[in-house]
Design a protein that fits this description.
The chain has 10 helices and 3 strands; from the N terminus they run βααβαααβααααα. By secondary structure, the chain is mainly α. This is Olfactory receptor.
Amino acid sequence: MDTKNATLLTEFVLTGLAYQLEWQIPLFLVFLVIYLITIVGNLGLIALICNDPHLHIPMYLLLGSLAFTDAWISSTVTPKMLVSFFVKGKISLSECMIQFFSFAFSATTECFLLAAMAYDRYVAICNPLLYPVIMTNTLCIRLLVTLFVCGLIYSAFHVFFLLRLTFCSSNIIHHFYCDIMPLFKISCTDPSINVLIIFIFSGLIQVFTSLTVLVSYMLVLFTILKRKSVRGFKKAFSTCGAHLLSVSLYYGPLFFMYVRPGSAQADDQDMMDSLFYTVIIPLLNPIIYSLRNEKVTDSLEKMLKRNV
């Protein structure tokens, strides 16, 4: 489209979630409670890991980092969504880019973290004697720094290519936050290059991280079956089961959102999928990992006893 004589738009309107007017207050209260529980749960888990020296090992350093990214992604999306229940969801182009950068950073880093956690469990269960040598705290911290830097580079890369787009015809974003696909749909510039970049790089990241998770847990399963130990099986299944549940809940909506053909119904479904992995998953992760972990629950009980 020719944009030389067109007025370039610098402010957008987020349509938000579709709901009937009588559901406005109940939905607002539900999402507010979810957000508060998410922040308290994830930041509480981080505080618990920081304050207990027994949890200063790679598994819990990774878990604390996952809690950090969950709190980050929830704080990136939910507050703006809550405000939009009562005020028209206006957002400037710069705010939109910042929100997408923050979302892409946390979502990408979480993919890498889930893969790293799967590899950590593989080493711990399949090579228990070598685990303290292979997965040291120093190596884990270096790995975490690398993962966060990769997340920053990936999100900055997408924002850089987003800045080449112009918006002149419509400023209505059919979403509750600035996601990249709805922006492509209202762009006056051909977004084919951006779509190709997303298809290649996002696909590579999802394939690499999901394969790492699947291969790691398949090797863990084979190792457990060889040992024929009921106690070991229960312990390993409890740990790995929580990880697999979290991975399935995260990758499921993410995968279907990017492979589904475009349509009005698909747009609404994409919004529901996004709601699931930006609002619900950050709520569930600390529950999944904490309540099924004896060390975390024991540490929580000790902290509560000391404070009480």
